[in-house]
Amino acid sequence: MKPSGPRNDYDRLTCGTWLLSLAEAAAEPEQEQRELFMLLLHTLSRLTFSDQPWRPLLSGFLLHFSACQGYKPRLNHCVHCGKRAEDPPFFFDAEEGGLCCGSCRRSRAQVSLSPEQLRWMRNALTVGSASWVNTPEAEAPFALLRTYVEGKLGRRLKSSALLPEE
Fold it and tell me: Are 56 and 135 in contact (CB under 8 A)?
């Protein structure tokens, strides 16, 4: 039997390195970060001991990371007009921190979000990590969430360059 986990899989190793860099960038000296520690521990364990694809795993991490850092994305109503987001098209406005309806979209920076991706994000925040397991990779908007979180941090992490190709 071939050993699995980050030591034997470069993509998973770079994902783990990136997670640690992200946690380090967010951690404040002398400030307790129990929720961040548990989220990191849980995600690194899954990355190491499961065959789960990395994109849904890291996407779920990013959603919960943003929530524990105080910038949980708003996913039920348009961040501009307040209209309930029920019918596509949906867009994600990273600058405003949530959904944007088709009527309010003014910029290409507001990225298109499929109904499946929106459903995945809502489930990941409400159901928890059970919704990340064995979900189709196309439903997990990793690139969008990475851009959102790195924007909130105010910088792109150097280790982002090592992440597997989208």
Answer: yes
CA nearest to 67, candidates 133, 9, 140, 122: 122
Residue from 58, 60, 104 nearest 78 by CA: 104
* pLDDT value of residue 52: 85
Q: What is the pLDDT of residues 50-74, one digit of tens each?
A: 888 888 999 999 999 999 999 999 9
Say which CATH architecture domain 36-162 belongs to.
Up-down Bundle (1.20)
Six-digit token pair at 124?
């990941």
Angle at Cα 99 formed by Cα 69 and Cα 88, nearest 5°? 150
Beta bridge partners of 99: 92
pLDDT at 63: 93
Q: What b/e string do you get for 121-155 counting C-beta neighbours within 10 Å, with b at 16 or more?
A: bbbbbeeeeebbeebeeebbbbebbbbbbbebeee
